[in-house]
């Protein structure tokens, strides 16, 4: 029995930022679309509801290359240092890092590769740099993976204190502590390192389709956001003010 005006009044009454209102609008639209698809509603009045535009804050969440490296180099614990290295060097999502097992890693010449089970149930292969592969090898040796009760290939790359896979909340704590140690803002998260990977590799001349494949973006348009967030030139530089 809900009417269009009631939906609009509800969204207009919501407190918070435009992002909060946009999230609520998207949830309502999704619910009403589903209700129509299963035959619960004859008409989907949510189709006419406009999701309010939100400010793109991606540029505010891209740290400098120096800051990313500082976070890694100042981390005193080997496991955590390798974790930060893989988040940044591989551009992995936090869930992908937590799900890595040694069987997912394979030597490629002097470096290596990781088979990553990513967002949407999609699997991709990420080539790792020589430097990242070396610290992973050091972690494996230090952790004594070959001496564990379970087969070495089945062991998680990043172990918790209890011997299982590290969970996302623990990764968040590691990243937050590393950011504080480096004197960075409190908002820094694991995903910021993924943003940094995309932006810095594009800055260094990596082809956009290659960055797309490495990060596992479904569309090159998603990767292209980093070009807009960090433009290399501006017409403002041609003015005398």
Distinct helical segment count:
10
Helix content: 40-55%
What is the CATH class designation of the largest domain? Mainly Alpha
| End-to-end distance | 58 Å
What would you call the shape? globular
CATH topology annotation of the largest domain: hpI Integrase, Chain A
- Considering the protein shown, what is the CATH homologous superfamily of the largest domain? Intergrase catalytic core
Main sheet summary:
3 strands, antiparallel
CATH architectural name of the largest domain: Orthogonal Bundle
Rounded to an integer in angstroms, the radius of gyration calculated over CA atoms is: 22 Å
Beta content comes to 5-15%
For the largest sheet, list the strands in their spatial order: 1-2-3
Q: Structural class, from helix and strand content? A: mainly alpha
Total domain units: 2
Explained architecture:
- The protein has 241 residues and is mainly α.
- It has two domains: 4-55, no CATH class; 59-229, Intergrase catalytic core (hpI Integrase, Chain A, Orthogonal Bundle).
- Helices cover 48% and strands 7% of the residues.
- The chain contains ten helices and three strands, in the order H-H-H-H-H-E-E-E-H-H-H-H-H.
- A three-stranded antiparallel sheet has the order 1-2-3.
- A hairpin with a 5-residue loop joins strand 2 and strand 3.
- Helix 9 (208-215) packs across helix 10 (220-229).
- The chain starts with a helix and ends in a 12-residue tail after the last helix.
Topology:
Blueprint: H1 4-13, H2 18-37, H3 65-73, H4 78-89, H5 94-98, E1 105-108, E2 111-117, E3 123-128, H6 130-143, H7 168-181, H8 190-203, H9 208-215, H10 220-229
Antiparallel strand pairs: 1-2, 2-3
